[in-house]
Design brief:
Elements: H1 13-33, H2 40-57, H3 60-63, H4 68-98, H5 108-137, H6 145-167, H7 170-191, H8 196-224
Helix pairs in contact: 1-2, 1-7, 2-4, 2-6, 4-5, 5-6, 6-7
Length: about 230
């Protein structure tokens, strides 16, 4: 009997498992080692970046890239990620107010955390506009949105990991950092199946072919109508 090779695992399975593991390694020690007024911040932020936003990036594997269902799931996850990030920001501001500390960010983590929040706000707004335009006219605009969003997610993982080093013990921070790094590598590897750069290249090639085809048709039409080609 012929030996059949086992069916490959779904491409989004490993990144999803690693994202859940990373979330657990960040949120669980936060409950044990940080004050109750502070612990909602790392939990909400890790849920935003490691759970919701990760699923938003992996949405193309649900029904194929560019399908309506994958676009809707992507939009829901990324808007949910932004709302969780807003809740996490509000929680840290309440903690600072309770501890009578300055509300202004004074560390790398705090400053770039605000940058990430504004970036996610921009991505949510542009993504919603892009989806509305696509449904209304079928035109694809803001093609930089996908690639920019991926690097925004990578940056948010870095800022999250740095925050973990600031508040958690050495062992917990080391384990969570390794898990987040593995999650980021796994998501990046999965997305290479449908890389943004190759999608752009395909679009450029299609555009060039369309222009060439249109030029040939116009030339043939002018020739059959006895119109000079150079007028």
């Amino acid at each position: 009997a012929a030996i059949t090779s086992p069916s490959p695992l779904p491409p989004m399975l490993l990144p999803t498992l690693l994202s859940v593991l990373s979330f657990a390694l960040v949120s669980s020690p936060s409950l044990a080692w940080t004050p109750l007024t502070f612990s909602p911040h790392p939990i909400l932020m890790s849920a935003s970046v490691l759970l919701a936003s990760t699923q938003g990036l992996l949405a193309r594997f649900r029904a194929g890239p560019g399908t309506p269902s994958s676009r809707i799931w992507h939009a829901k996850m990324q808007v949910g990620s932004f709302l969780l990030m807003v809740a996490g920001t509000v929680s840290i501001l309440l903690h600072k107010y309770t501890m009578q500390k300055s509300l202004w960010p004074r560390t790398f983590h705090g400053v770039f955390g605000w940058v990430i929040l504004l970036t996610f706000l921009l991505q949510s707004a542009v993504g919603s506009l892009k989806l509305a335009t696509l449904w209304k006219s079928g035109e694809k605009k803001h093609r930089w949105h996908g690639l920019f969003g991926f690097w925004a997610w990578i940056s948010s993982c870095i800022v999250l990991t740095y925050g973990v080093f600031l508040v958690l013990p050495s062992l917990s921070s080391a384990l969570s950092t390794v898990a987040v790094a593995c999650c980021a590598l796994s998501v990046t590897k999965a997305l290479r199946r449908f890389p943004f750069s190759s999608m752009y290249k395909r679009r450029i090639v299609v555009s060039k072919n369309a222009v060439l085809e249109l030029g040939v048709k116009n030339t043939a039409r002018r020739y059959t109508n006895n119109v000079p080609l150079h007028d």
